[in-house]
Write a structure and sequence with these properties.
By secondary structure, the protein is mostly beta strands. The chain has a single domain, classed as Cathepsin D, subunit A, domain 1 (Beta Barrel). It has helices spanning about 35-40, 95-100, and strands at about 5-10, 20-25, 30-35, 50-55, 60-70, 75-85, 90, 100-105, 110. Strands 1, 2, 3, 4, 5, 6 and 7 form a seven-stranded mixed beta sheet that branches. The protein is globular. The relative contact order is 0.25. The model has no long low-confidence stretch (mean pLDDT about 90).
Length: about 120
């Protein structure tokens, strides 16, 4: 299965700007991440910091904000990490699951489940 991308819009009621970009769907990542400079340019401010483990196993501490996350006609909200300025935007599994959207392993495409899983 190849890489899966989706257009994502990040916003929040108390900021004027928004950030829109094509995000790589990363089912191995819990939270979503975007380039820190782009988030700041859009008006997002860090509200906290948490330890994370990169895919390489390297531990890092990353700042995060909360954002309204829109993609594929759905809206959810969640934590978005301030990644390095050159990072590829990632859409994490929490945003996918909260909208009932999964990656279909047969064709490598996003598909909507008939309902959101509660268990």
């Amino acid at each position: 299965m190849g890489a899966v991308y989706v257009n994502v819009n990040l916003s929040w009621p108390n900021i004027k700007g928004e950030y829109e970009e094509e995000f790589l769907v990363d089912t191995g990542a819990t939270d979503s991440m975007a380039p820190g400079n782009k988030l700041r340019e859009s008006g997002f401010k860090p509200i906290g910091k948490l330890p994370y483990e990169l895919a390489t196993g390297q531990p890092v501490e990353l700042e995060f904000t909360l954002a309204q996350i829109k993609f594929m006609g759905d809206t959810t909200a969640g934590r978005v990490l301030f990644g390095p300025d050159d990072t590829e935007p990632l859409l994490g599994v929490t945003a996918l699951e909260s909208t009932g959207i999964v990656v279909d392993p047969k064709n490598g495409q996003l598909k909507r489940l008939p309902s959101v899983r509660l268990k």
